[in-house]
Design goal:
By secondary structure, the protein is mainly α. The chain has one domain. Helices cover 92% and strands 0% of the residues. The chain starts with a helix and ends with a helix.
Length: 146
């Protein structure tokens, strides 16, 4: 009786194990992997589009800054020319020398700001173009997956 009970128990366990084990085909695994890749690409695409929108909003601001700093640099250079002309009329005048030195320093500082603003704008434009190409690549990847 005991032996029969043990054999029946083991038989039931074997039957239940074979019924509960699910076989996952390779096709369904591949489909799941493709779906996961598709979701990752969509996430990257969305992040890049948000970053692109942020950069494009900054573009107008940076362009205005370049214009403003270029105008200020030109004004400072004109002022420096005037002060240098005054100094050349009377080279020994201390006041003219000091004001010419100050205007030269201001012109140098403003020119540096203008160059930096121009560099920042160029970098921003380069980043925008790079993001646009990455977005296009992601969109083509996504369209080939579907």
């Amino acid at each position: 009786m005991k032996m029969k009970w043990i054999v029946n128990t083991l038989g039931m366990m074997l039957i239940s194990l074979s019924l509960s084990a699910q076989v996952v085909s390779k096709d369904s695994l591949n489909v799941l992997k493709q779906h996961k890749e598709s979701l990752e690409i969509r996430k990257k695409l969305t992040d890049r589009k948000l970053e692109l929108a942020k950069y494009e909003n900054q573009l107008a601001e940076k362009t205005a800054e370049v214009t403003k700093t270029a105008e200020q640099a030109q004004k400072s250079a004109d002022e420096n020319r005037k002060m240098a002309a005054k100094l050349s009329e009377d080279a020994q005048h201390k006041k003219h020398a000091k004001s010419a030195r100050k205007s030269a320093n201001a012109a140098e500082r403003d020119a540096k700001k203008a160059r930096r603003a121009e560099s920042n704008l160029a970098t921003l434009k380069k980043n925008i173009e790079s993001l646009k190409s990455k977005i296009a690549d992601d969109e083509t990847k996504l369209s080939t997956m579907q």
